[in-house]
Amino acid sequence: MRVYFNQLNRQLNQPLPKVIMVFGDEPYQQQQALDAIRQHCQQQGFDERLRFNSDEDFSWQLVLDEAQALSLFASKKLIEVELANAKPGKEGVKFFKDWCAITDNEHLLIVWGGKLGAEQTKTKWFKELDKHAWYIPVYEIERSKLPDWFRGQFQQHQLNVTPQAAALLCNLFEGNLAGAAQEVARLSLIYPEQQIDEDNVRAAVSDHSRFTVFQLAEDVLADNRNKVVQIIKRLQGEELEPVIVTWMLQREVDNLLELTLAGNQFDATCKKLRIWDNRKGLYRKALQRLNLPLLENIQQALAQFEVAYKSQGIDNPYLFIAHICGLFSANAQLHRFNQLMINEMGED
After folding, report:
1. Ranges of the chain with pLDDT below 50
2. CA distances, 288 to each of 38, 152, 259, 296 (Å)
3. Which residues does the UniProt record annotate as the domain DNA polymerase III subunit delta C-terminal (predicted)?
4. Residues 126-177: tens digit of each pLDDT
């Protein structure tokens, strides 16, 4: 049974299942979900909590033995297994089957880890477990939904925040919900019982937004030039190894080349490349402006960067990367885009 994050508190009023699965790529909300479940279980008499990590030496039999062992401290146990790679293996599949078959099992099993793709939720082990479990998927909050999330935080802390200040907070904390929650709590202490405007936020908050190379990939494909500049500057400031960024750009070029050569087999090729439905629109948009010669130019630029960076070094590798990102724009405003990069980042 699928239970979304914003439904969890209400769902916890219902009888608990044998298993709760919490998987996702947003660490703050995942931690919030796990903490809510743990707190509820403690109130329900689960006085003993055990945690396992499914590393290479892990045995699922240990979990089953623990569930069947008598305890001097608690009759009900909360048992957690971090399933990092979302692959329980044959032993794990058998364990899930045995666990769900125990009729007098008073214990609760929590299985949690990173995001599950569509293919993983179609596996036999997941489908069987889902019959006896709550599945709580935890997703990254999209930029368009971030204002609603902040409004909830403001209400929780009884804050009166102007729309301009709220918009600024969205820009500052995109991709960093943990930092956002901390700053909202801090604002409630700094400005109690008063309206918080944009100047208040600027005075109290520093820019904690975190962007990843994968976010950069989406904005490069969508041709969001100003966002690309912002992300590259931040990655440069965080001293991320440049080859990680160029690896991502190379992957996107390879995907675009294969989609270009696929002709009218776009959907089939996306499936082959594991491009999910929510990203297809980005590739379609990129293919409207990028043809085969332009993609080959980007490939050549990436190859030149790799040779120069590994053989002799580059004084300002991120400026070089910025020019490569500019090639993805492929229009008459390319010169203006590159000039913006130079003005923002400087050229040695």
Report:
1. 332-333, 335, 337, 339-342, 347-348
2. 49, 39, 12, 16
3. 218-311
4. 988 888 899 999 988 888 899 999 999 999 999 999 999 999 999 888 888 8
Amino acid identity of 80? E
Contact between 71 and 48 under an 8 Å Cβ cutoff? The reply is: yes
134: its two tokens: 């709550």
**What residue type is 125 in one-letter code?**
W
The SS3 call for residue 265 is coil
pLDDT of 89? 83
The confidence score (pLDDT) of residue 335 equals 46
- Kindly give, in sequence order, each residue whose CB lies less than 8 Å from that of residue 270, ignoring residues fewer than 6 positions away: 259, 280, 283
Q: What is the pLDDT of residue 74?
A: 55
CA separation for the pair 169, 208 (Å, rounded): 10
User: At a CB cut-off of 8 Å and minimum separation 6, what does 307 contact?
Assistant: none
* Alpha-carbon distance values, 64 to 72, 81, 109, 131, 340 (Å): 18, 12, 10, 19, 60
Token duo for residue 329? 């724009």
212: amino acid identity, one letter: T
Please name each of the domains of the chain with its CATH number: 5-138 (3.40.50.300), 143-204 (1.10.8.60), 213-345 (1.20.272.10)
Q: Give residue for tokens 């990843």.
A: 212
Q: In the sheet where 77-82 sits, what is the strand order?
A: 48-53, 77-82, 108-113, 19-24, 133-138
78 and 110 Cβ atoms separated by less than 8 Å: yes
What values do phi and psi take at 34, rounded to 5? -65, -40
Partnered with residue 136 across adjacent β-strands are 22
- Burial string for 316-347 (b: 16+ CB within 10 Å, else e) reads ebbbbbbbbbbbbbbeeeeeebbebbeeebee
Q: How far apart are CA 206 and CA 180, in angstroms?
A: 11
